[in-house]
């Protein structure tokens, strides 16, 4: 049994992590320069990789298991969740550790006791994963005690939030988007991840490797994988995927994401002027005793002497040191569409 799983892991490593062939040398690279650049970026940043036969297969679909492995690697996920209850997940399959990691970070939740790992993933399923991982939700207002009988046009009520779906309302096939996926699809579109195909969202179609790489390229332009002090960032959203990073005097209107693999005290942000979002997924260092008590000994992320427009904490139980920082709180006034700002 162990040998079988080891062999399958080796085979999957060749398929997913690919050969050492550079992106430009893949035999089936797209001829369109823009598409080729997207594949180049995806390979360079570990989002996609080539196959042992020297191809990258841009038009091939992606299975749910493959998507789980891509997201887990992109976020540097380490911890594995318990997926033993899913009856269609083979514990000896190559994807098992990746799917368990993706489940742990909240990317894949499954449906009842099924995960459907071998199914090709659709656009709306893919967007649901990305929305949950990177907190890509459309504009919303809080309505803790909503008593109205009618919601605003192009909106949906989920919990205590009224989400606006204007970003997808003009697509020809918006009616095909499942109710459970509307907020997620609208979030990815509103954040610039997808512009559709001939005014169609194609939510039920299988997303290809090139299309997925395009979405990721739209959402995240920069990846920090090397420790050091950074005094500026290129234009576009940035994902930090390593410890030992200091962002000093950074001024940006783009988003900064802190990946799951970043440990406690792994990043410091000093003298920043962040007008985009700071989305924190990593930095959680905790110990759990025999009684299930969780103890944090370090601050996960240090923010000093800066201005931060929005801080979103995705993973639970993360400590953020805000001493010396200026934080802009945006809240909605009930009965209005006006957001008020309070500086603290």
Q: Enumerate how many helices there are, as a single number.
A: 7
Task: Flag low-confidence runs.
Answer: 1-21, 294-299, 329-344
The largest sheet, given as strand count, sense and whether it forms a barrel, is: 8 strands, mixed
Order of helices and strands, N to C? Answer: HHHHHEEEHHEEEEEEEEEEEEEEE
- The count of β-strands is 18
The coarse overall form would be globular
- The structural class is alpha/beta
How much strand content do the residues show?
A: 15-25%
- Rg, please? 21 Å
* Mean pLDDT across every amino acid position: 81
The CA-CA distance between the termini, in Å, is: 58 Å
Helix content: 10-25%
Short description:
With 344 residues, the chain is an alpha/beta fold. 23% of the residues lie in helices and 20% in strands. Strands 4, 6, 8, 9, 11, 15, 17 and 18 form an eight-stranded mixed β-sheet that branches. Strands 5-7-10-14-16 form a five-stranded parallel β-sheet, with no helix packed on it.
Descriptive report:
This protein is an alpha/beta fold and 344 residues long. Among the domains are: 123-203, no CATH class; 222-331 and 338-343, no CATH class. The protein has seven helices and 18 strands. The chain has helices spanning 2-16, 33-44, 64-74, 96-104, 123-134, 182-190, 209-219, and strands spanning 140-142, 155-158, 161-164, 222-224, 228-230, 238-240, 245-248, 251-252, 256-258, 267-270, 273-280, 287-288, 294-295, 301-304, 307-313, 320-321, 326-332, 339-343. Strands 4, 6, 8, 9, 11, 15, 17 and 18 form an eight-stranded mixed sheet that branches. β17 and β18 form a beta hairpin. It is globular and about 50 Å long. The chain starts with a helix and ends with a strand. The model is unreliable at 1-21, 294-299 and 329-344 (pLDDT under 50).
């Amino acid at each position: 049994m162990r040998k079988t799983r080891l062999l399958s892991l080796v085979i999957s490593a060749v398929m997913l992590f690919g050969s050492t062939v550079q992106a430009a040398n893949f035999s089936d690279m797209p001829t369109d320069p823009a598409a080729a650049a997207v594949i180049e970026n995806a390979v360079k940043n570990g989002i996609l990789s080539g196959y042992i036969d020297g191809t990258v297969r841009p038009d091939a679909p992606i299975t749910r298991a493959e998507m789980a492995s891509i997201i887990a690697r992109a976020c540097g996920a380490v911890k594995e969740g318990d997926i033993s209850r899913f009856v269609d997940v083979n514990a000896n399959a190559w994807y098992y550790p990746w799917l368990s990691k993706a489940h742990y970070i909240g990317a894949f939740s499954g449906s009842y006791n099924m995960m459907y790992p071998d199914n090709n993933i659709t656009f709306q399923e893919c967007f649901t994963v990305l929305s949950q991982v990177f907190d890509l939700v459309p504009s919303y207002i809080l309505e803790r005690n909503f008593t109205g009988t009618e919601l605003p046009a192009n909106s949906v009520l989920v919990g205590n939030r009224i989400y606006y779906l204007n970003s997808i309302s003009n697509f020809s096939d918006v009616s095909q988007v499942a109710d459970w996926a509307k907020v997620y699809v609208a979030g990815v579109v509103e954040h610039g991840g997808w512009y559709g195909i001939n005014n169609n969202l194609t939510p039920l179609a299988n997303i290809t490797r090139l299309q997925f790489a395009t979405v990721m390229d739209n959402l995240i332009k920069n990846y920090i994988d090397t420790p050091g002090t950074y005094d500026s960032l290129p234009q576009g959203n940035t994902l930090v995927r390593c410890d030992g990073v200091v962002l000093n005097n950074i001024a940006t209107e783009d988003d900064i994401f802190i990946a799951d693999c970043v440990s406690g005290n792994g990043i410091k942000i000093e003298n920043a002027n962040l007008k985009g979002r700071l989305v924190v997924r990593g930095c959680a260092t905790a110990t759990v005793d025999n009684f299930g008590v969780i103890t944090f000994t370090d601050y996960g992320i240090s923010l000093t002497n800066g201005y931060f427009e929005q801080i979103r904490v995705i993973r639970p139980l993360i400590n953020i040191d805000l001493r010396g920082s200026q934080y802009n709180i945006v809240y909605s006034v009930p009965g209005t569409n006006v957001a008020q700002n309070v500086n603290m």
